[in-house]
Amino acid sequence: MSTQNNTITENTSPTKGMTRRRFLSTLLSTSAIAFMGSPLLMKVAHAAAAGTKEVLNGAHWGLFRAVVKDGRFVEAKPFEHDIRPTSNIANTPELVYSQSRIKYPMVRRGFLENGPQANTEERGKGEFVRVTWDQAFELVAKELNRVRDTFGPAAIYGGSPGWKSVGRFHNCRAGLYRLLNMNGGYTKGVGDYSTGAAQVIMTHIMGNPEVYAQMSSYETVLEHTNNIILWGCNPQETLNMGWVIPDHKGFTYLDQLRDAGKNVISIDPLMTESAKHLNAKWYAPRPGSDTATMMAIAHELIKTEKVDEDFLSEFTVGYEELKAYVLGETDGIEKTPEWASKLSELPASDIRDIAAQMANGTTMIMGGWSMQRADHGEQPHWMMVTLAAMLGQIGKPGGGFGYSWHYECAGVPSANNAIVPGLSGGKAPENMPPAMPVARITDALLNPGETIDHNGRKYTYPEFKLIYWTGGNPLSHQQDRNRMLKAWQRPETIIIQDIFWTASAKFADIVLPATTAFERNDMEMGGGASGKYLFPMHQVVEPQFESKNDLDIYQGIADKLGFGDKYLEGKSEEDWLRELYSKALAQGKAKNLEMPDFDEFWSNPTSYVEFPTTDEAIQYTRHGEFREDPLLEPLGTPSGLIEIYSKTVADMGYDDCKGHATWIEPAEWLGSEKAKQYPLHMLSPHPVERIHSQTNNISTRDNYTIAGREPVWISEEDASSRGIKTGDVVRVFNERGETLAGAYVTGDLRKGVIRLREGGWYDPEVPGKVGSRCKYGHANVLTIDKGASKLSQATIANTCLVDIAKLEGDVPKVTAFDAPKGA
Ligand SMILES: Nc1nc2c(c(=O)[nH]1)N[C@H]1C(S)=C(S)[C@@H](COP(=O)(O)OP(=O)(O)OC[C@H]3O[C@@H](n4cnc5c(=O)[nH]c(N)nc54)[C@H](O)[C@@H]3O)O[C@H]1N2
Ligand SMILES: Nc1nc2c(c(=O)[nH]1)N[C@H]1C(S)=C(S)[C@@H](COP(=O)(O)OP(=O)(O)OC[C@H]3O[C@@H](n4cnc5c(=O)[nH]c(N)nc54)[C@H](O)[C@@H]3O)O[C@H]1N2
Ligand SMILES: [Mo]
Question: Which end of the chain, N or C, is less surrounded by CB atoms within 10 Å?
Answer without folding.
Answer: N
